[in-house]
Automatic annotation (TrEMBL):
2-(S-cysteinyl)pyruvic acid O-phosphothioketal found at: 117
Location in the cell: Cytoplasm
Chief place where the protein resides: cytoplasm
GO cellular component: cytoplasm
Protein name from the UniProt record: UDP-N-acetylglucosamine 1-carboxyvinyltransferase
Record bears the keyword Magnesium: no
Molecular function as annotated in GO: UDP-N-acetylglucosamine 1-carboxyvinyltransferase activity
Record's catalysed reaction(s): phosphoenolpyruvate + UDP-N-acetyl-alpha-D-glucosamine = UDP-N-acetyl-3-O-(1-carboxyvinyl)-alpha-D-glucosamine + phosphate
Family to which this protein belongs: Belongs to the EPSP synthase family. MurA subfamily.
Keywords associated with the record: Cell cycle, Cell division, Cell shape, Cell wall biogenesis/degradation, Cytoplasm, Peptidoglycan synthesis, Pyruvate, Transferase
Positions of UDP-N-acetyl-alpha-D-glucosamine binding: 93, 122-126, 306, 328
All residue ranges annotated as the Enolpyruvate transferase domain in the record: 6-407
Length: 445
């Protein structure tokens, strides 16, 4: 299995370009199922494992896709199946996002139960509540959820008990082709919801209010393909902002949208990091002296749970005690155990982690427990003494395009090695100066 080897001690400097947002492109690809005519042309599609999986899923539904140079074309004029298999849903929870579009277009959908994952149980009750309110019959059995409706879905007023990102997206997509108007109250307000709404509207839908807690969707009879550019990934951007701060570096994060990163920017500034918001990106500078701060994850515009572990790495490098409270997911502290292997002093009390900064982190063998945890361990490795070896890289591949290459572009002493190369490393002890080969080259076509 591949590993990332990081040697700490280098201040990062230079320019890094942010890729398209994973969490925007996944629902957008699912929404492409709704286009009964024309072709969707989606730009800035990141070459990620999750993107490959959802593309594979659409192919099993009979849909035609091509992918070249970050441009994905999807022709969904023909849908030959309404079933999302366990094998695909198991690999990626977001596969469940095909349920709304399939139900709205085909009147039925059969999707494997997504189950829990490393960060919590992650129920889907709010998605199902929305579909039922729109007239769908839901049956659960043999590991699948089957949804069906006689005729078209009916517009409805839906109040979400939790401002769930996925439920808001799934219901929005279903409502786009429903008869009448749907109003989602307590809707999630994430930028990815706005991007999805823009894509749906590009296909001819009538979605208003995305980005607020109340979204109104007037159903239309047909949708057709359009051209769309995916927003930049705010979590990838935030990860590189932390990389600059933790190493006492000076990095321009090109393409980052300042508005999407306000909570992250505010916390970095509280810690003493200089954040310069520019039109086409964000420059982050730090002298490496960091103050401890408390962080609480919340739905957008609050501090993102997807930045919690990276922020914890930064707090470990700060002076003083910080409290990190996770309110979005019930079990998103798996990385704490891995940080401890690196000499971190962190205590968990319920939903909070008490992080003692200041102790010198030491390089160690650690494993990514989810994709953000994987990135966070690499960040910690950038300031640890000696060498850190991060394994279980399939997590990182889900959400970061060429992570090691981008870090190396900023001067980080980091590389990805495959088992064959490891042997070589031991044999000749030269690998640290060799250029690394690109490990990930997806072929979606
Ligand atoms: C592909 C994608 O976009 N993933 C993001 C999305 O996940 P996802 O859409 O799964 O996250 P949700 O906003 O739905 O989940 C938030 C909380 O609501 C709970 N919940 C959710 C749905 C439901 O029906 N019932 C319920 O109880 C979840 O268990 C969780 O505790 O938003 C999360 C929260 O910002 C991010 O961490 C993920 O990176
Ligand atoms: C938790 C995440 O993604 P997902 O919802 O796809 O598991 C994430 O992007 O950090």
């Amino acid at each position: 299995m591949d590993k990332i080897i990081v040697r700490g001690g280098k201040a990062l400097a230079g320019n890094v370009k942010v890729s398209g947002a994973k969490n925007a492109v996944l629902p957008i690809i699912a929404a492409a199922i709704l286009a009964e005519e024309g072709t969707n042309v989606i730009h800035d599609v990141p070459a990620l494992e999750d993107v490959r999986i959802i593309c594979d899923l659409l192919k099993t539904l009979g849909i035609t896709l091509t992918y070249d140079k970050e441009v994905l074309t999807i022709n969904a004029s023909r849908v030959t199946s309404v079933e999302a298999s366990y094998e695909l849903v198991r690999k990626m929870r977001a596969s469940f996002l095909v349920m709304g579009p399939l139900l709205a277009r085909e009147g039925k959908a059969r999707v494997a139960l997504p189950g829990g994952c490393a960060i919590g149980t992650r129920p889907i009750d709010q998605h199902l509540k929305g579909f039922e309110a729109m007239g769908a019959k839901i049956e659960i059995g043999q590991g699948f959820i089957e949804a069906s409706v006689e005729g078209r879905l009916q517009g409805a007023k839906i109040y979400l008990d939790i401002a769930s990102v996925g439920a808001t997206e799934n219901i929005m997509m279903a409502a786009a082709l429903a008869e009448g108007t749907t109003v989602i109250e307590n809707a999630a307000e994430e930028p990815e919801i706005v991007d999805l709404a823009n894509f749906l509207n590009g296909m001819g839908a009538k979605v208003r209010g995305a980005g607020t807690g109340s979204i109104r969707i007037e159903g239309v009879e047909r949708l057709k393909g359009c051209t769309h550019c995916v927003i930049p990934d705010r979590i990838e951007a935030g990860t590189f902002m932390v990389a600059a701060a933790i190493t006492g570096g000076d990095v321009f994060v090109e393409g980052a949208i300042c508005d999407h990163l306000k909570s992250v920017t505010a916390k970095l500034r509280e810690m003493g990091v200089e954040v310069d918001e520019q039109e086409n990106g964000i420059r982050v500078r730090s002298n490496g002296r960091l103050k401890a701060v408390d962080v609480k994850t919340l739905p957008y515009p609050g501090f993102p749970t997807d930045m919690q572990s990276q922020m914890m790495a930064l707090l470990l490098a700060s002076e003083g005690t910080s409290i990190v409270t996770e309110t979005v997911f019930e079990n998103r502290f798996m990385h704490v155990e891995e940080f401890r292997r690196m000499n971190a002093n962190i205590k968990i009390e319920g939903r909070s982690a008490i992080v003692e900064g200041g102790a010198k982190l030491t390089g160690s063998k650690v494993a990514a427990t989810d994709l953000r945890a994987g990135a966070a361990l690499v960040l910690a490795g950038l300031v640890a003494e000696g060498e850190t070896e991060v394994s279980s890289l399939h997590h990182i591949d889900r959400g970061y395009v060429q992570f090691t290459e981008k870090l190396r572009g900023l001067g980080a002493l980091v590389e990805r090695v495959s088992p064959a190369k490891e042997v070589e490393t031991e044999a000749v002890e030269q690998v640290k100066t060799e250029p690394i080969k690109v490990q990930f080259s997806p072929n979606f076509a």
